[in-house]
Amino acid sequence: MAGGGDIQWCFSQVKGTVEEDVTEGEAPPHHYLSVDPDGDSWEYADIISTVEFNQDGELLATGDKGGRVVIFKREPESKQSMPRRGEYNVYSTFQSHEPEFDYLKSLEIEEKINKIRWLPRQNAAYSLLSTNDKTVKLWKITERDKRPDGFNLKDDEGRIKDPNAITQLRVPFFKPTELIVEASPRRVYANAHTYHINSISLNSDHETFLSGDDLRINLWHLEITDQSFNIVDIKPANMEELTEVITAAEFHPSMCNVFVYSSSKGTIRLCDMRQRALCDQHSKMFEEPEDPSNRSFFSEIISSISDVKFSHSGRYLISRDYLSVKVWDLQMDSRPIETYQVHEYLRSKLCSLYENDCIFDKFECAWNGTDTQIMTGSYNNFFRMFDRNTKRDLTLEASRENTKPKCILKPRRVCTGGKRKKDEISVDSLDFNKKILHTAWHPTENIIAVAATNNLYIFQDKDKV
Question: How far is CA 262 from its chain centroid?
């Protein structure tokens, strides 16, 4: 895989509605919309809410606010051509979750897919976990290109034959048919979360997984749906004493007993399940002391961690707060070893971002396959790339203006004051309705997937096109 300074990113594909980009504040056509529980805002049901490559990068799954999962599969000819191309086409689409209503609490349960996690492939079928706010489901995706034919007791239409008309014994056989991809729910893990699920993570033992909500983390066995073990519970006896919530949780990629979870106070706790059954007491806590010179009314809000991810090697962690991405070494919990500013120019805009609720946006982050680069999103459909070796950073834009085949993405720059140069955009001109919250990086190649509202952009290294 190429180093970050060597990569020239170019457009590969875009999936989704071709019309004007959707923003969550617009009122869409009736058959596309769903209403927030508070009734205040209208949202398209096809706004992408999660993006995930599978282990070998051959499949790419997206979940949306309408509860659907769309799986894209890499075309064989694009993989075998030289140079290789990363072209993905729709493989399967299915409704994972439906809207529900909790009659005891008089609450609507959204169908929105919060997370998708792929399971390692064990046979010809694929498997994935998907979750909305309350229920995790295990789905099996299978292909069928043959059907049984030549029955003795049934005719070609499936009707039962008259036994007296049967004069010879036939041997049934399989007849080739058009390829059908079927998604079937294998397990439903329900009724274990009082609060909204924000994380699911598969363990390296491939037998268990965790699901985390605002105050608790549960451990499940994939084969058992009616029982889970509570491994973290930070709910205080008196809810008025609540000071923080869990924002993300993830298992270590190779140590099945280790997991981390982040909080709204900007801390990351590493827990070891060998020490105790209930991991309320952490083994390590990663926290950076706040700079007194940057202290403000918004300090606690912007320090909240929206995403945390282990590196593929398991040696490092990245965490994303509102303004920055931090890299932590598991051997040193006193401070991050690297800090990358994502959009520091917004620090002066925090007041207006608070008023329009953008300050509460939850941006995700992603590693490349060699743990040398980091990607995360920003506003105006910008996304940021950070090279850990060269310390260079890059701002790119997911835009339909750059959708010509093999079009190289031009770096974008934001002007914070003074005279604006030709290729720069003023910080006052940024569109905060267009935001890149969800991104994914192919596990072994320089192919990235970026969700921009209801569009999925796929970019790749120019040298591989």
Answer: 16
Question: Which amino acid type is present at position 184?
Answer: S
pLDDT tens for each residue of 47-64:
999 999 999 999 999 999
Q: What is the pLDDT of residue 83?
A: 58
Q: Centre a 10 Å sphere on the Cβ of residue 296 and count the other Cβ atoms it contains.
A: 11
Q: Which residues make Cβ contacts (< 8 Å) with residue 51, sequence separation at least 6?
A: 60, 61, 62, 116, 438, 439, 440, 449, 450, 451, 456
| DSSP secondary structure, 379-435, as one string | BTTEEEEEETTT--EEEEE--GGG-STTPBPPP-EEE-SSSPPTTEEEGGG--TTSB
Please give the structure tokens belonging to residue 427.
């910080």
Full-model pTM: 0.87
End-to-end CA distance of the chain: 14
Q: Locate all alpha helices (DSSP H) within 206-349, ordered by sequence.
A: 299-302
- Maximum CA extent, the chain: 94
Q: How far apart are CA 99 and CA 109, in angstroms?
A: 6
Instruction: Report pLDDT for 6.
Output: 66
Task: Give the span between the Cα atoms of 212 and 418, in whole angstroms.
Answer: 46
Give all strands (DSSP E) within 197-303, no chain letters: 197-202, 208-213, 216-221, 229-233, 246-251, 258-263, 268-272, 284-286
Sheet of 59-64, strand order = 48-53, 59-64, 68-74, 88-95
The residues that bridge with 228 in the sheet, in sequence order, are: none
- Partners of residue 44 on adjacent β-strands: 33
Can you tell me the distance from the alpha carbon of 114 to that of 426, in angstroms, rounded to the nearest whole number?
33
Structure tokens at 161: 């034959």
pLDDT tens string 187-202: 999 999 999 999 999 9
Tokens 């890299």 found at: 327
Query: Average pLDDT in the 89-105 region?
Result: 91
pLDDT digits 0-9 by tens, 257-273: 999 999 999 999 999 99
Over range 81-106, report the average pLDDT.
85
* Of 57, 17, 50, 5, the residue nearest 444 (C-alpha): 57
Distance in angstroms (rounded) separating the CA atoms of residues 317 and 31:
42
CA distances from 67 to 62, 73, 100, 107, 184 (A): 10, 20, 11, 17, 15
207 Cβ contact partners less than 8 Å away, ≥ 6 residues apart: 221, 222, 223
